[in-house]
Amino acid sequence: SGLSCLHIAATLGHDRVVEILCKNKADINQSIIIDDQPVTAYDLALTQEKTNVCNILVKYGYQITN
């Protein structure tokens, strides 16, 4: 499926797991392809309204783009 641990934790809103993964250098910018579109852990968290996860990803350097 191409999903990383970070993608799964972000989707499910497991903010403590996301924090641990980020501290241990998980690739916060890694994209997977869904419906022919690149999707990051941030995108998945945002879609699921997991704002704590989004904030953690930004704290660790995720760059929000339009």
Report the end-to-end length measured between terminal Cα atoms: 26 Å
Looking at the overall shape, the CATH architecture is: Alpha Horseshoe
How much strand content do the residues show?
Answer: 5-15%
Q: Mean pLDDT, nearest integer?
A: 94
Any idea what the radius of gyration is?
11 Å
Write out the strand line-up for the largest beta sheet, numbering strands in chain order. Answer: 1-2
Number of helices: 4
Shape call = globular
CATH homologous superfamily, by name? Ankyrin repeat-containing domain
Named CATH topology: Serine Threonine Protein Phosphatase 5, Tetratricopeptide repeat
Q: What class, by secondary structure content?
A: mainly alpha
- N to C succession of SSEs: HHEEHH
Low-confidence stretches: none
Whole-number tally of structural domains? 1
Helix content: 40-55%
Strands, count:
2
Name the CATH class.
Mainly Alpha
Largest sheet: 2 strands, antiparallel
Keywords: ANK repeat
Pfam family, one: Ank_2
ANK repeats: 1-29
InterPro entries: Ankyrin_rpt, Ankyrin_rpt-contain_sf
Give a short overview:
The chain is mainly alpha-helical and 66 residues long. It has a single domain (5-59), classed as Alpha Horseshoe (Serine Threonine Protein Phosphatase 5, Tetratricopeptide repeat), CATH 1.25.40.20. It has helices at 5-12, 15-23, 41-47, 51-59; strands spanning 32-34, 37-39.
